[in-house]
Amino acid sequence: MQALLTRIGMTRDAVVPLAKARGRERLVSEALRPAAATNLWRKTSADPSFAAHADAALATLSVIEAANPEDEALQSRLALPQAVQDAGKTAALVTADRALGRRVLAALQPLEHRGRGFRRRRARRHAGRIFARLAASAALGGLEP
Hints:
By secondary structure, the protein is mostly helical.
C-alpha cells in the first residue's frame, strides 16, 4: 500500500476508509499492521470492543491441521460440501498454493458429476480483482488515457 501511495504521490492521510472495520475485517487489519505499528497491538487488544469483534470473527472460523498436503486436500474436500449443505450458504477455498487448489479440485470432481455444482473460478477473472488491477495499473501508469 505504501509503495502504491508513494508512486502516485499521495500520503496515507489522503486514504479514507470506505466503512468502519468490524468482525474479521478488523481482526485481519490488526494482524496485518506494518511492523513499525505493532506496538499498538497491546492497546488494541485491551479495548473491550476489539475483543468482541475478535470473538465474533473467530466464532465461525475453521482451521484445518493436516499431516501432509494430501490430508489437507481431503479435509478441504470434506469441509466444503458440508459448509454449503445449509440453504443460502456458500463456501470457498482461498489459497495461493496452486498445488493445494488442484488437489482439492481433483477431490471435488466426483461431486461435480453428482450435480453438486462445485466449480473452479480463477481469482484473476473475478470482477473485483480485475477492477483493482486496472485501477492500480492506471495509477502506476500516470493515469494516461
